Amino acid sequence: MSDCDCGLKTCMFCAPRANSGYYGSSDGSPHGGTPDWLLDELREEWGELFDPCPNDPNFDGLEMEWPLDVVCYVNPPYTRGHIQKWAEKCHLEYERGATIILLIPPYTCTAYFHDHILPFAEVRFLRGRLRFKGYSAKAANPSIICIYRGDD
C-alpha cells in the first residue's frame, strides 16, 4: 500500500491503522479496544491490518470502500444495531474482493449472522472471554473471529 499525506480522515491510506476498535470502556468513554496480544497474533498471521472502524468518532468506515490490497480488521461497536451494520458492510466489501477479519460476540441466532457471516466467512471461536482495553473485567460474552477471504 502506498503512503499518502493528504490527511483526509476518509482516505484509506491516511485513516488510522488497526489498533483497537470500538467496545466501550470503564472510564465512561464509548470506546475500548482489542487486546494487544490478539492484534499481535492477527498481524503475525495476516500482516498489516487496515482498521475501517477505529477509535475515532469522526471516521466512518461504513461510508467508504475498503482497500483490497491489505487485510481489514473490524472490531465494531457492540451496542444494539451496530454489529449488524458492520456485518452487512463486511459482506459487501468481501463481495468487492476485500479480505476482512471481524471480531464480534457469537450471536449465532441473529439473521445477520446467517445472512452475512455464516455462508461467506470462516468462523473461529475464541477460548474464554476477552478483556478489552479500558476494562478491568472480562467481556460479558465470548468472541468469534469471522474471516472473509477476498481471494476465494
In words, what does this structure look like?
With 152 residues, the chain is of the alpha/beta class. It has a domain of 105 residues: 3-Layer(aba) Sandwich (Rossmann fold). It has a five-stranded mixed β-sheet. Helix 2 links the parallel strand 2 and strand 3. It starts with 35 loop residues before the first helix and ends with a strand. About 16% of the residues have low confidence.
Residues in β-strands, percent: 5-15%
CATH architecture of the domain at 36-54 and 63-148: 3-Layer(aba) Sandwich
CATH topology of the domain at 36-54 and 63-148: Rossmann fold
Tell me the radius of gyration: 15 Å
Distance between the termini: 21 Å
Report the CATH C-level class of the domain at 36-54 and 63-148: Alpha Beta
Distinct helical segment count:
3
Molecular shape: globular
Residue-averaged pLDDT, rounded? Answer: 84
CATH superfamily of the domain at 36-54 and 63-148: Vaccinia Virus protein VP39
Q: Count all strands and give the number.
A: 5
Q: Which series of helices and strands comes N to C? A: HEEHEHEE
The helix content, as a percent range, equals 10-25%
Query: Any low-confidence stretches, pLDDT <50, length ≥5?
Result: 6-30
The secondary structure category is alpha/beta
